[in-house]
Amino acid sequence: MIRLENVTFTYMDDDFPAVDDVTLHIEEGSFVVLIGHNGSGKSTLARLLNALLIPTHGDVWVDNMNTKEEDNIWEIRKKVGMVFQNPDNQLVSTVVEEEVAFGPENLGVEPEQIEERITKSLEQVGMSSYRKHPPHMLSGGQKQRIAIAGVLAMEPRMIVFDESTAMLDPQGRKEVLETIKALKKKDMTILLITHFMEEAVFADRVLVMDDGKIVMDGSPKEIFSRTEELHSYQMEFPEVIDLANTLRSAGMNLTTDILERDQLVTELCRLL
C-alpha cells in the first residue's frame, strides 16, 4: 500500500532533516503504530504519506503512485485519509451529516451515493443517533469520531491518525481507540501515531522513530521486550507491561507475552 524509499525531508531553514533516509513498506490491511518522543519526525512522516509534504530526497509511493507527480496528488489524497490531533480544527459544518458529506461533495460524488456514505460512515463510528446534532455540542471523543466518519465517507483505503487521541480525556481516547479497532477488523490499512504506549499493544506492527529515523520495527511483543533499547530512545512502557516487568523482577514467574490488562489478571490468578 505504502512504500518509502530512502526518503528525506528537511524543512526550509532547518539544518537537520525531520525525516532522514527512511525506507519503509506498509502492507495493505495492516495496523501499524508509530511512536517516538516529541520532535522525532512522526508527524512529518505522516504528512509525506498523502502528499501534504513532498520528499526533499527519495520517493513515496501510494498504491504504486509517486507523490512527486502532480497528476497523482488528487487520487493519492482520496486513498490516504488523515485525522489530526485537534478535532475542532477539522470540523467545518454546523450539522453532523453536513460535516460527513463535506468530503464526498468535494470529490463530486452523486447526491444519492453521498446519502448512503453518510449513513454507512456514521454507523461505522457509532454516531448514527447524532446525525442531526451540531458538532460543537459534542464531546471531544465524539467530535473526533465525526472527523473519522468524514474521512470514511471519502472511502479511503488507508487512514493516518496523527496523535488523534492526544487532546482527549480518557473516555474520549477509549471511544476513538474502539473505533480504530473496529476499522482494523474491516481490513482498513491504519497508521496510528501516538504517545500513549498502551495504544501500541493492539497493533500488528510497532515502529519507533528517533531523530528522523526508524530505529525499531517489530510486533508489540518484540518491541516491548527490548527494555534497555526502548529506554535509550526516551520511551516509557505501557502501565501493564511495566507492572509485569516489576513483578518478574520481584520473583513472580509471569509469562513474557503479557501486553494487556486481562492477560496480566489471568496470569496473577493462575499464580495465586
Fold and architecture overview:
The structure is a single chain. The protein is an alpha/beta fold. It has helices at residues 42-48, 73-79, 96-106, 111-124, 140-152, 170-185, 220-224, 227-232, 239-249, 261-271, and strands at 2-9, 19-26, 31-35, 57-62, 65-66, 80-83, 158-162, 189-193, 205-210, 213-218. The strands form two sheets. A six-stranded mixed β-sheet has the order 6-7-8-3-9-10, sandwiched between helices. β9 and β10 (213-218) form a beta hairpin. The N and C termini lie far apart (47 Å). The model has no long low-confidence stretch (mean pLDDT 92).
**How many helices in DSSP terms?**
10
Element-level helix/strand string = EEEHEEHEHHHEHEEEHHHH
Averaging pLDDT over every residue, what do you get? Answer: 92
The name of the CATH topology is Rossmann fold
Task: Write down the Rg.
Answer: 20 Å
Q: What CATH architecture do you see? A: 3-Layer(aba) Sandwich
| Helix fraction by DSSP (H/I, runs of at least 4) | 25-40%
Number of domains: 1
* CATH level-1 class: Alpha Beta
Distance N to C terminus:
47 Å
Structural class: alpha/beta
The profile of the biggest β sheet is: 6 strands, mixed
Strand line-up in the sheet with most strands: 6-7-8-3-9-10
Strand content: 15-25%
Give the CATH superfamily: P-loop containing nucleotide triphosphate hydrolases
Oligomer: single chain
